[in-house]
Write a structure and sequence with these properties.
This protein is mainly α. Helix content is 83%, strand content 0%. Helix 2 (11-34) packs antiparallel against helix 3 (41-69). The radius of gyration is 15 Å and the shape is elongated. This is Large ribosomal subunit protein uL29.
Length: 70
C-alpha cells in the first residue's frame, strides 16, 4: 500500500490495518518456517506496510500532542 493511500485512512482504520498486517506477517513467518513459501518477498512487503502504518499513526499522535500544547 502506498503512503499516499495510508494518509487518506482514519485513525481507526489504520489501527485495524495494523492488527491485520501483524496477523498476516505472523502467518507468513510461520508458513515460511514450516516450508518455503512460494513468494518470500511477501514477508518484506508485509513488514514494510506495517512500518508505514505505524509511522503514520505515530506522526498523527505527535501532531495531535503538539497542537494540544499550543
Amino acid at each position: 500500500m502506498k503512503y499516499s493511500e495510508i494518509k487518506d485512512l482514519s485513525n481507526e482504520e489504520i489501527v485495524t490495518r495494523i492488527q491485520e498486517e501483524k496477523a498476516t506477517l505472523t502467518k507468513l513467518k510461520f508458513a515460511h518456517a514450516v516450508s518455503a513459501i512460494e513468494n518470500p518477498t511477501r514477508i518484506n512487503k508485509a513488514r514494510k506496510d506495517l512500518a508505514r502504518f505505524n509511522t503514520e499513526l505515530t506522526q498523527r499522535k505527535a501532531k495531535a500532542v503538539s497542537e494540544s500544547n499550543s
